[in-house]
Design a protein that fits this description.
The complex is a heterotrimer of chains A (181), B (264) and C (286). Chain A has 181 residues and is mainly alpha-helical. Chain A has helices spanning 6-28, 33-37, 41-51, 53-71, 79-99, 105-132, 139-148, 151-170. In chain A, 76% of the residues lie in helices and 0% in strands. Chain A is globular, with a radius of gyration of 16 Å. Chain B has 264 residues and is mainly alpha-helical. Chain B is built from ten helices and no strands. In chain B, helix 2 (21-37) packs antiparallel against helix 3 and helix 2 (21-37) packs across helix 7. The two termini of chain B are 46 Å apart. Chain C has eleven helices and ten strands. In chain C, the strands form two sheets. A six-stranded mixed sheet of chain C has the order 6-7-8-3-9-10, sandwiched between helices. In chain C, strand 9 and strand 10 form a beta hairpin. Chain C starts with a strand and ends in a 5-residue tail after the last helix. The chains are: A mainly alpha (181), B mainly alpha (264), C alpha/beta (286). Chains A and B meet through helix 1, helix 2, helix 3, helix 4 and helix 8 of A and helix 6, helix 7, helix 8 and helix 9 of B.
Chain lengths: 181, 264, 286
Amino acid sequence: MSKLSSVQRSLITAVCIGLCVVLPIMFHSIPNAGTVISPMHIPVLLSGLVCGWSFGLLCGLAGPLLSSLLTGMPPLVYLPSMLVELATYGLVCGLMFNLIFTKKLYADLYLSLVTALLAGRIVAGLAKAFLFTPGNYTWAAWITSYFITLWPGLVIQLTLVPAIVAALLKAKLIPPRYPRK
Amino acid sequence: MNTLPAGQYRPGDSPLHRLDARIKMLCFLLLMTTVLRASSLWGYTLALAAVLAFLRLSRLPLRAAVAPIRGLGWFLLAVFLMNALFFPGEDILAAGKFFHPTQSGIKQGFRVTANVLFLLILGNLLTMTTLPTQVTAALLSLLQPLRLLGVPTGEVAMIISLALQFIPALMEETELIKMAQLARGARFDSKKLPERAVSYLPLVVPVFIAAFRRAEALALAMEARGYRNAENRTKSPKEPLRPQDYAALTVCTLIFLVQFFLPR
Amino acid sequence: MSIKIQNLSYFYLQPNGEKFEALKNITCTIETGDFTGLLGPTGSGKTTFLQLLAGLRPPTSGEIYFHGEEISSKNFARHHLREKVGVVFQNPEYQLFAATVEKDVAFGLKASGLSREEVTARVQWALETMGFTFAKIRHQSPLALSAGEKRRVALAGVLARKPEILILDEPLTGLDPCGRQSFLRVVTEINQAGTSIIMASHDMEALAEYTKHLLVLEEGRLVEAGPTREVFSRLKQKEHRAFQTKAQRIATLLTEKGKLPLPAAVVTYNDLLSALRQELAGGGPK
C-alpha cells in the first residue's frame, strides 16, 4: 500500500464517525472515563491525521452531531461549542500533519496534535465568548473548563493517539509516512 | 439502516411525529435560537409558551418528555446558586464575606437554568418524535445547499450513511473487545494519571484496529466492484412538503422574529 | 472444585425490543482438570455460554457455582474469578494492543505482585509453551504477526496468568492443518499439567480426538452432555446427522453399503483405522 485511495479515506472517515457515536457509550459504563478521556476526540484527531484536513473536518462535525441526535451524548445544549471544538481539531490536525515533515514520525504527530488541541480550545473559547453566550463568558471560565478540568484528557489524548497510529502502522492498515529504503 | 439503535424514538401519530423531518429540524433550530435570544421576562414567557405548545403537539406523556431533566434537579440548583451568589454586580442584596447575592446574579441564574431546561426538553422532543433514519435523511438533504460552496455533498452523504451502517457492528465489536480485555486482566480504574492513560490502551487500540480492518475490507470490495465516487449517484426521490409543513415553519419563524424584535 | 451450572438462561434485548433467547435452561457440571468440548453450529449460543461461565455477562436467570460459590451473587469477588478463569476470544486481535509481544504477554501480570524477573520468566515460559523462541519473538509487534501467531500470542497472554480454567472460543478457525495440529497438542499439554480446558468449536474431528467430555448446544439448548465418545455414539444412535464425525459417517457407510461390520464405537479416524485393520487383516495387527 503506497497511499490511501479516496474510497479508503471515505471509509476510514465513516468508521471514525461511527466510533464517535460508539465510544462514548462504551466509556459511559466505566466510572469517570467519559468526562476525563473525551473519547470522541480520538477518532476525530485520527481521521484528520490519516485522511487529511477535509475528512477530519467532516468527522469533527458529523461525529458529535450524529452522537447527539442518536444517543443524546452530548446533550444538544452543549453541541454547538463541541462542534466548533471538534471540527477545529480535525481540521487543524490534518493541515498540520500535511505541512510538518521533521523526518521523525512521533515529532510530526506530537506537533500536529498539540497545535490542534490548542487551536480547538481557543476557537471554542472564542465562539463561546462572542457567539453562544456573549457577555458572560470569562477568561477564568475558559481556563477552568478547557485546561484545568480537561488537562487529564489532554495528556490521555497525547498518549493514546500516537499509540493507536503506531498500532495501525504495525498492522499495515495505514501506509508508512517515512518508508524505509 | 434498519438495524440502527432505536435511540429515544417513541412511536406515535401526533402532528409533531408527522411533520416533515427537514422542516422539524429547521423549526427546532429556530426555537432553540428563540430560547437563547430571550432576555426579558416577556422573552422567556414566549419561549415557555412555544415549548409548552410543542410538548402538547407531540402528545407524549409528560413524564417521558421531560425525562432528561429529571435527576438534574441538584445540578440546576447548584448552577442557579453559583450564579446568584457569585455573579459580580453592583446591586448587592445582602453583603457577606464570600457570598454576595446580587439582583443581576439571581437574574443570571434564572436565565442559565431556564436555557438549559428549555433546550433539553426541545432536544428531547426532536429525538423522541423522529426516527434516527429520518433524522439522518433530513440532515443529508439540508446539506444540499452546501454544494454551491464547492462541498462534495454526495461524498459527504455517502460517508455519513456508511457511518450509520457501521454503528451496530462497531457497537457489538467494542462490547466484545471490552470483555476480551477484562478477561485477560485489564482494569480501567487506575487512579494515577499516566497509568490511567495507559490503562485505556487495551480497550482503545483493538477497537481502532478492528474498525480500520472493517473499513479496509469494505473499501477493497467497493473498489473491486468498480466504485469511483459518490457524486451524482445518491439522488433519492424527495417527498414534497405539505401545507402543514409550511405552516409549522411559518409559525416558528414568526416566534423567532417576535423574540428578535422584543425590547431587550 | 468444579463448575456447576443450574437452569442457566440468557436472552439479548434486540433493538426492536424483542427478546432473543440465546441460552435456554441449561444444567450441567464441568469437573476440575477436565478437557471439555463445546460443540454446536454457529449461532447455537456457544460464545454466550462461555462469556457467562467467565463471569463477563450476568445470567438472565439460573446460577453458576464456581467452587461451590454462586458467581453472580453480590458478595462474590468478581476479580477473583477473573484471575482464575482465562478466556481467549475468537478474534485474537481483540486482545492484542501493546508495542511488543513481551509487553503484551506481561500485561495481565501487572497487578500480580510478581517481581520484574519473575514476570520475565513467566512471560518466557508462556511464550515457549506456545512454541515460540523467546529471544526471537519478544521485541516484535504482536500486530505484525501472522494470524496463527497472533492467536498463540493471545493465548500466551492469558496463560501467563496461570489460570485454573482456560476457556477457548473457536481457537481453530483460521489455522492451517499444521498449525491446528500443533495448537491442539499444546492445549493438551496444558491440560495434562493440571489446567481445566473448555473449548468451543464446530470442528467435530478435533473435539472427538482431544476432549474428554462434550457438551452439545443446539439453538440454545443443551442436547447432549457426557464423556465425548459416549456422546458421539448417542448422537449416532439418535441419527443426528449434523453432529457426526466424518469417521463415524464413513464407518456407517462401510457397514451398511460395504458389508463391512465395523463396531458402533468408532468415533475418531484412529478408531476407524484400527477397526478397519482388524476387519481387513482378520484378527488385528500382527
